[in-house]
Amino acid sequence: MPKVQPNWFRLSPLLKFAIYRFLFMRLSETTAFLIRLRLDILRYNTAMKPGEEFIEQGIADLENDLETIPSLLVSIGAPRLRRIGLLIPNKTFSDPEHRLYLLLSKLHDNGAHSKYNSYIRRLVSYERAAECGL
Asked: What is the C-alpha to C-alpha distance for residues 134 and 125, in angstroms, rounded to an integer?
């Protein structure tokens, strides 16, 4: 038996209206969902600056005198972070760049250099975003 497809032109105007309304309602629901999703994404993006989790953890670690990757990053960026207006503890590590590289070389033998560079990029990204007021 051949498959019969409805001819759009033969449908009654009331049925066409029902189909249009159904499609419009679905489109409106989808559009509303996408708008809500976009607003959630924007809210998330403005809530945290890139690398902010490292800075917050680093400040807490400095206050507790812990030598961690975040605390060494905050020590590296302390002068600029203070100019931005963050309350950085006065006691920072001496020679934090060298200490960070040594710590990373213990954790990642051959990948220490790339890890070091990626952490510094995160720090600089945070500093630039904070200076711009993002």
From this structure: 11
- Enter the pTM of the model: 0.64
User: To which residue do tokens 């489109």 refer?
Assistant: 27
Question: Are the C-beta atoms of residues 74 and 92 closer than 8 Å to each other?
Answer: yes
The Cβ of residue 35 has, within 10 Å, a number of other Cβ atoms equal to 10
CA dihedral of residues 53, 58, 63, 68 (deg, nearest 10): 130
- The count of other CB atoms within 10 Å of the CB of residue 120 is 15
Is residue 92 helix, strand or coil? coil
- What pLDDT, on the 0 to 100 scale, is given for residue 41? 57
On whether the CB atoms of residues 43 and 70 are closer than 8 A, the answer is no
Residue range 2-18, pLDDT digits in tens: 555 555 556 566 666 66
Which residue, among 65, 50, 32, has the nearest Cα to 126 in the 3D structure?
50
